């Protein structure tokens, strides 16, 4: 176990801040400088490994994935960069990747993740049945396998996920793909409120967040927030994201 659960249990703020970036975008140099500059604001970094068909992503992150892949960013040079930069010694990092990137020689890759200092994996296309079988192997290599729940998940599967989840729960609060929304979906709020009554495991809101107002509205409901597309949109527009990043962080206090 990577002890991400302890991070939630021992937090001294309302919400853990989990920003999402795609590896190598805009480039490794920018990311490295930005992450080190903001290491004290980032509770957990979710780092996406570029993939040709990121089925969970909306148009913004699809475009970023494409641009990163065109530049040659992949799993191997992402791991090399993380190790060489020392980022994982300063920030708890989880990787979002698709299963076919790692299913060949799986344990060899998990060992490599452990050596690099990765704390956990988010795998959108991994079926629950396979996830359950793999959890002991992930635990062996001190990696949390982070599971999803959403309003479309059947009730019996929700109970199963709550029972076997080794780490925090990645709550997909809306139907569809990633992307910034103007307001919190009532369905998502109602769903997470119900799940909260059924588990003591930390709940992290993913998909659709982009404002400090939204984040403030989630205090008391969830334990952490993931912001990805809204950051990515500003990077695509070549905006300076520092002030915006500061606003998001302050909203989690």
TrEMBL record:
Record-annotated active site: 46, 57
Pfam families, alphabetized: Trp_syntA
Enzyme class: lyase
Classification via CDD domains: Tryptophan_synthase_alpha
Keyword Transferase attached: no
Recorded catalytic activity of this chain's protein: (1S,2R)-1-C-(indol-3-yl)glycerol 3-phosphate + L-serine = D-glyceraldehyde 3-phosphate + L-tryptophan + H2O
Cellular-component GO terms for this entry: cytosol
Annotated keywords: Amino-acid biosynthesis, Aromatic amino acid biosynthesis, Lyase, Tryptophan biosynthesis
Gene3D superfamilies to which the protein is assigned, alphabetical: Aldolase class I (3.20.20.70)
Pathway(s) the chain acts in: Amino-acid biosynthesis; L-tryptophan biosynthesis; L-tryptophan from chorismate: step 5/5
This enzyme's EC code(s): 4.2.1.20
Any GO molecular function: tryptophan synthase activity
Subunit structure, as described in the record: Tetramer of two alpha and two beta chains.
Family: Belongs to the TrpA family.
Function in brief: The alpha subunit is responsible for the aldol cleavage of indoleglycerol phosphate to indole and glyceraldehyde 3-phosphate.
UniProt name for this protein: Tryptophan synthase alpha chain
Organism placement in taxonomy: Bacteria, Pseudomonadati, Dictyoglomota, Dictyoglomia, Dictyoglomales
